[in-house]
Amino acid sequence: MSKTQKLLYLHGFNSSPQSHKAQLVTQYMADNGCLDQLLCPQIPAVPEEARLFLEQLVEETLENHLLNFVGSSLGGYYATYLAEKYSGTATLINPSVKPYETLKAYLGENKFYFQDEVWEFNETHIAQLEAMKVEKLSDEQRYLVLLQTGDETLDYREAELKYKNSQCIIEQGGDHSFVDLERFIPGIMQFSKIIK
Q1: If we measure between CA atoms, which residue out of 139, 138, 155 comes closest to residue 147?
Q2: pTM above 0.90, yes or no
Q3: Which of 25, 79, 95, 131 has an alpha carbon within 20 to 30 A of 50's alpha carbon?
Q4: pLDDT-derived band of residue 72, with 50, 70 and 90 as boundaries?
């Protein structure tokens, strides 16, 4: 019996499955009758906890399914780590390439976007992020990278350089949220082997 394909959506820093991009993906898959193929968990804020949680989720899923990844911002960094460790394709939306550098701006107290709790982001967490760094991609064709040059949070050129031999779509303008992502969701679904 052939294994069914699943898709793991990974949200960004301080975000959640309620984020706009996660909701767009969820809605598209619901409209196309394949919502049961989506995994869209709340990822722990602490990077080491996130790594352990995601590795366990991926390993359990792979027992019965094939798995591909979609990640936004920090979720794109996690998606790269997981795709290299377990294989599968990864679609990265304005991905964070060096969160152990860029997130230093967020050291201290942080508030989640979709809940009232606050948490302390510290140097230990920076080191945990750096420990997940992927120096070299094993197969660059397994990555689809969507970038907008108007990203106010991350320098798109870092991702352009890291994924230069992958399928990169670079749009002028836009912002970190990736404006009008819905235009690309059908292509993401094809790349992720969810919809033929």
Answers
A1: 155
A2: yes
A3: 25
A4: very high
